[in-house]
Amino acid sequence: METRFLKTLLLVIDGNSIAAAARKENLTPSAVVQRLRALADEVGAPLVKRAGHSMRPTEAGMAVVETARRIVEMAESMPSLANRNDEIGKVRVGIIHSMTTGLLPEILILMKEKRPGIQVEVQPGQSSDLFQQMVDGNLDAAILVEPPFAIPKEFAWHELRKDPLVVLCSIDETEDDPVALLKRSPFIRYDRKHWGGRPGEVYLKGLKLNLQEKYELDSLEAIAVLVNRGLGVSVVPDWLPPWPEGLSLRRIALKGGPFRAVGIIFPRLTLNERLVKAFAEEARAAAKAKNLGFTTG
Is 251 within 8 Å of 238 (Cβ atoms)? Predict the structure, then answer.
């Protein structure tokens, strides 16, 4: 049984689409269908079926998907196992959206320069989703906001930076007292369901303010744009630049030092442990460079 065919099956199931799987594998849709048929012939049953505009696993597909995932992961880890003195292989990394422009490029530059044999597969997302994907074995590591619960002992956590919370307002605002500004201005909330939004939620609850809440958004960039257009003020982490272009904003520091902690988390024991730790090392180096105010490369 071809492991590359199993990988194609997983891409179809994970993306619910033959066309999406074809794009990721640089194949034609008909080639993907041929691989699925070959697998179905080998196992003796169809593994996917069409449901509306999506592709869904059949009962047989559901029965074999986790085994297929383990086989593909083991096959992809073989280069690193066979070349323990060399760093060769792939790591699958999740990263929150606010770090994809501010930190990720610096990490990838370091990986290209110092660890060229390691292929980095990047998946952006929200902290809670990325954490769960790592727990499920779909990611090798994740750069995310520190979880609002005790991190299980089987995972390693390394803090990369602390983003202080600030009141974000228009450049035309003359008020310097953040609490006074929050009391009288329309408020744009950073989604409290997000791990990144919880430090602000805790801080605001402590102030016991009667906020004039107008919007609640899950995108820091979108919040910045709305504030720039004079639609309100917000409490957000002072995330790494670049921010959206063309904005004229003020960031007013908050008393009490609230912050959002961002770090990298990964399993302590994994088949490609050496590669994951190498990536984590470069992530810490890139974050240190950013925190000191200079870039790598």
Answer: yes
Give residue 24's pLDDT.
86
Instruction: List the beta bridge partners of residue 90.
Output: 119
Nearest-angstrom CA–CA distance, 83 and 5 = 25
* Own/partner pairs, 293-296, CB within 8 angstroms, 24+ separation: 295/106, 296/106, 296/109, 296/110
Residue 160 is inside which H or E element, if any?
strand 155-170
Question: What average pLDDT does the chain have?
Answer: 90
Summarised one tens digit per residue, pLDDT across range 56-66 is 999 998 988 88
CATH of residue 174's domain is 3.40.190.10
Looking at the whole model, is its pTM more than 0.85? Answer: no
Q: Tens digits of per-residue pLDDT, 22-49?
A: 998 889 999 999 999 999 999 899 999 9
Which has more pLDDT, 189 or 4?
Answer: 189
Q: What is the C-alpha to C-alpha distance for residues 111 and 104, in angstroms, rounded to an integer?
A: 10
How many folded domains does the chain comprise? 2
- Does residue 63 sit within a domain? yes
Q: Which residue, among 237, 232, 112, has the nearest Cα to 163 in the 3D structure?
A: 237
Last residue of a domain, one of 82, 117, 147: 82
Three-state DSSP class for residue 147:
coil
Contact call for residues 262 and 133 (beta carbons, < 8 A) = no
Last residue of a domain, which of 49, 67, 82?
A: 82
Give the 3-state secondary structure percentages of the chain, helix then strand then coil, rounded to 5. Answer: 45, 25, 30
